[in-house]
TrEMBL record:
It comes from the Bacteria. This is ABC-three component systems C-terminal domain-containing protein. Residues 2-113 form the ABC-three component systems C-terminal domain. It holds the Pfam family CTD7. InterPro entries: ABC-3C_CTD7 (IPR046913).
Length: 119
């Protein structure tokens, strides 16, 4: 949890500096986030397929799969630009997307999101 908070904070600061200093192309952050979401979507789909094979899936197994998904995503190297080598930018950006409910780690993410939006 501590690492996630640190990555979020560092990515937030870095992205804010890029915006403040006008160092980004038009829609560059939005395009980057779309790439991150696309990569997450593939990994999330694989997790769903793997878990669909298990009968009577427990909440503990779902949580474990979600932690593995997060770990797998954090090991990827998806850069906003080729020379931006700071891994915290990607990891922190994923946490920002999770806060915006654009990505999630639990297999029931979409059902839980619908529940939140419908109440």
């Amino acid at each position: 949890m501590q690492n996630a908070l640190r990555d979020y904070y560092r990515a937030f600061k870095q992205r804010a500096a890029w915006v403040r200093n006008d160092l980004l192309y038009v829609n560059e952050l939005e395009k980057y986030e779309k790439r991150l979401i696309d990569e997450w979507d593939h990994a999330f789909g694989e997790m769903q397929d793997d878990l669909a094979e298990i009968k009577s899936l427990t909440e503990e197994e779902k949580a474990k799969a979600g932690r593995k998904l997060l770990s797998d995503i954090e090991k990827k190297d998806i850069r906003i630009r080729p020379k931006c080598e700071e891994a915290f930018v990607m990891r922190g950006s994923y946490h920002m997307l999770a806060n915006k409910l654009k990505v999630g780690w639990h297999v029931d993410f979409f059902e839980r999101l619908k529940g939140l939006l419908c109440t």
